[in-house]
Amino acid sequence: MEEFSVKKANHFKILTVLAVAASLSLGAYMYSAKDITLSIDDEKEEITTYANTVEDFLEMEGITLDKAAYINVPLDANLENNMHIIIKTPKTYLLTMGDKQHEIVSVHKKVKDILKDLGIELDELDYTKPGLDDEAALGGEIQIFRVKEEIEEIEKVIPHESITKKSNEMDIGVTKVVQEGKDGLKKIKIKKVFENGELISEEIVDEEIVKESIPKITKKGTRNVITSSRGKTRYRKVITMVATAYDNSYESTGKRPGDKYHGITASGTKARVGAVAVDPRIIPLGTKLYVESLDNTKDYGFCVAEDTGGAIKGNKIDLFFNTAREVRNFGRRKVKVYILD
Fold this sequence. Notes:
CATH superfamily of the largest domain: RlpA-like domain
Structural class: alpha+beta
Number of helices: 5
Number of strands: 21
Oligomer: single chain
Shape: rod-shaped
CATH class of the largest domain: Mainly Beta
Radius of gyration: 58 Å
CATH architecture of the largest domain: Beta Barrel
Order of helices and strands: HEEHEEEEHEEEEEEEEEEHEEEEHE
């Protein structure tokens, strides 16, 4: 009876040891379980795992990483309870700058993060579409605008004005420049803005006059009245001409007394003092005139354009005198010819 009791007691001890061992094994197994937070492209999931390393964990979860993917912890790191594993998968975008386009890959969504990931820096004036703080659409386009400003300085001529002043001290139709005009000069600063090498705007930012312009001043005669022994006579035009003299002699006309048309003008009138020869293209026949001397001698006075002459072309006038002596004395001189109203 005593022997049976001993055997029974020993059997109980063995069962107790096995129970304790099983309990300890289950506790160790339960102790190795870890709670992991997994974020893939901002989608979170809470997972309990018994994996030892990050790589084991991903393999157990059937997750394969792209070589361009981002993970916040090394693959050979030991898993820890409450560990947060962040994975960002690569995304494709179209990067455009000017007329150049490239397909790029980045794990980021915000434009500024994508550019930083690519090592692209922007200058102060550069900008993007979408904006730096915006998210780019998956597979969408990101445009970079490189902005450059240049200041160009040019010189520009300031054209002088032309001023005409009326003067009653000068004959009508007569003009005289009393002050020569001179152009001025100014310097202009222009801001030019370029986007990706293309000019998009120009703006004048400064102007400086370095030389003032000087106006051209011309006096224009308005006087249309001459004063003679007959009083005041109105005229509509005055022309400075070269005057010569002729008479009825053969030396002047090539005709002798008795010849046909001797002493007769081209108008069919009698040649006489007061009948003068002109170029009809300048002064039509029949025009009433007044011839004024410019050398302080006596004026020829009132006359009528009635004759022509082979040598009388342009601004020339031939004045009739009665004698060859008067013709010789007159010679050749400048006169003012007033075309009367």
